[in-house]
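Sequence of PTN23 phosphatase (Brachypteracias leptosomus).
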Amino acid sequence: MEAVPRMPMIWLDLKEAGEFAFNAAVKKSAVNVPRDFEGCSTLRKYLGQLHYLQSRIPMGAEQEAAVPISWTEIFSGKTVTHEDIKYEQACVLYNLGALHSMLGAMDKRVSEECAAGAFTYLRDHFPHSYSVDMSHQILNLNINLMLGQAQECLLEKSMLDNRKSFLVARISAQVVDYYKEACRALENSETASLLGKIQKDWKKLVQMKIYYFAAVAHLHMGKQAEEQQKFGERVIYFQSALDKLNEAIKLAKGQPETVQEALRFTMDVIGGKYNSAKKDNDFIYHEAVPALDTLQAVKGAPLVKALPVNPTDPAVTGPDIFAKLVPMAAHEASSLYSEEKAKLLRDVMAKIEAKNEVLDQFMDSMQLDPETVDNLDMYNHIPPVLMEKCAALSVRPDTVKNLVQSMQVLSGVFTDVEASLKEIRDLLEEDEAQERKLQELLGKAPAPQGSSPPPPSSSSSSPGLAEVSKECSKYLEVHEKASFTNTELHKAMNLHIGNLRLLSGPLEQVRAALPSPTLTEDDKQVLQNLKRILAKVQEMRDQRTSLEQQLREMIQKDDITTSLVTTDRSEMKKLFEEQLKKYDQIKVYLEQNLAAQENILKALTDANVKYAAVRKGLAEVEHKWNTTVQTLVASYEAYEDLMKKSQEGKDFYTDLEGKATKLLEKARAACQASEATRQQILEKEMKKQPPPRPTAPKPLQKKPLELEAAGLDTGDLSSL
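Predicted 3D structure, token representation.
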């Protein structure tokens, strides 16, 4: 990217020291250090001198010279006191790590060294029961947070230095890996209870960062594909980056403005890259766009290093101020034995972490959650959202009736309006037909239908008919438009009325209407077998964690200083070998646990293959179930809208009905006036016609001439 937006980092508070019967001046300068790198140096020197003191004076737990030592626990603010000089060392180490985290969160992020070293040394060399903030879970969380943030600093530097896209992608992917480990720790219920209120804030920030740096990783994979002219891959990587960034934006709600600005900036970059890449591929390159899961996953590159902690390094601690108190031989031998124990722990942990990584990747790819692998229980209950709608309708029993009645009233008014408009139209057509007949009788050519009416001198139509015709046309147009809306409203009502009746009915009918899976005995056996193997996986995880914790506790409690004092230097190696044999049994248990993983995962793979068809069927039923629920909820939510629109329709048609009724009366009156006018014209025309001409007498006619002239038949005489 042209610039590198920054995300905020998490830093840890320093512990506050309390009682410790040590030189006041030394104590003050060691616990109230400045918040800079000079403060880190002071803490290292103090730690070293405490180590020298411990090697000479029995100030450990339950030893003769032990004195009370008090520090404030970070999360609760309580004062915790132990009579053990190692507690003082542990708290100083914690503050060393916390101070490094504070300095690392400042603006100058130029070093990839991080605070994880102090927390790692604290985790591996000290008991975890001193206080909550130094428990094994919290220290693991701190280590992964610090490694992730250090890798984040390195990522910023790499982008500023314009390093190769593939390297930047791997560095960013490693940031994601570290933060995923931290997120797993944050999601642990025990860790969450220890952290208290800050757990949610940290988790939300870390989850957002996981998606954000995953987007950065795929952005640079897309840039690498662009450099290699793999234009189809470029599109899918940029699309994936855009999807992950959108997820990060969703999770960033409530984050400070600096985060929002960084997300907006990154969206501009990724969005522009994606749109350009897609357009180029659609119109120029026409390469097939592969599915993301067919491409090789981006493997993280862990390039950060934890600051090493060596309490006895003279370059750090300065001169040993207790050098004359006790011989160093026993202390040196104890340090060597501690290193042997640390080496043993590192070897075991390397195997455990390797197996855990394989297990995590395998389980992520399977996407199998033991708690919801079949999800059958949800089909036995009506979901709360639907129960809420049923409950709401139960106190409104006339819901469906009101809706139907409202629509019936609307239909009645609609029909009345349509009948009135039809009658008006029929009256106008009848009047027009009568007018044409009149014109034909008067010997005039009939005017074409729909043409302008004749002038008043020759037309019998009432002047009001033209106005009626115009108004009728307007009402018909409005009615036609409203008729479409009315039809759509009826369709919507018919769509939802059945669902509303269902929701208003007995709950058994609602439950019966929801889809549910039908499993054969073979299907049930497949599910049972899969659950059994998933339980084995969890059992293996729990046992592995327990054995690891036991090993750490054994190493922490393993102090052979008394034996070293009485052992000749030449016998030290043999003593170490004999003492380390105490760990053989737990190492065997761990080896068996790790070896069992391959067989368990193979069995899980086979079980998952058989589960595929069942899983597909369950997924389809779940989709139908969700769709049905959403449809029923939508019908409930549509009720008020239907009632509102129905009322609006009634109001509209009631108004239109009044106008149509008045117009009908006006049309009738105008048509009557027009008919009367036609009758007057007809009578006038009849009076203007001359009397009929006399015809010549026929030879055989017997009528008297005067009778014929009068138009009388001779037969009429007999009646006189």
